């Protein structure tokens, strides 16, 4: 195709493209396609997950919603298998305590995650499912936006590429670009490496794992807030 964009691997999402993403995602609450994409992005960004490997494993009960006095947040309580730095499969990813805080406004990740679950067929066994075609045409009058039929595992590999095309970013980003951007954002904000490792389970995590237990609730809020502020442009 003549107008196709070259795929860029492991690139950091530039500021102008983050703006394009914010503008595109601003319609999430009124569009089932964009809502599903935005929730996928939020999970990949805030939990620094390997989206292609883990998101198909998530269920509507993978998250618990809580309030700790610092604000409402979603905590990932679902353990997922994913590849380690050497390419082997880890038995479990230690997700306990990883949190995504509410920010308010139309780009609030917690509000949109709740909306996705609310708009999904109650019998669905997975978090990400096929959308109801009627909901795309008539979202306001359609109560259920997503069916009980889950997305095929292979479809997750194209999430960020599809988002890039729809948001008209300057280049086509891969799923890994979201993870790389989150890591870079936290690093640029001078977040301690051990706290980044708490989220990312990245290379050399084994030597830092013992420190993960010391991550306080305030630090968890800071991790989520740093990512939210960078994405919202505040």
From TrEMBL:
Write the record's keywords in alphabetical order, separated by commas: DNA recombination
Please give the Gene3D superfamilies that the UniProt record associates with this protein: Intergrase catalytic core
Q: What does the entry give for GO biological process?
A: DNA integration; DNA recombination
Q: Which InterPro entries match?
A: DNA_brk_join_enz, Integrase-like_cat_sf, MAVS
GO molecular function terms attached to this record: DNA binding
The lineage's top-level taxon is Eukaryota
**The protein, known as:** Uncharacterized protein
Question: What is the source species?
Answer: Pinctada imbricata (Atlantic pearl-oyster)
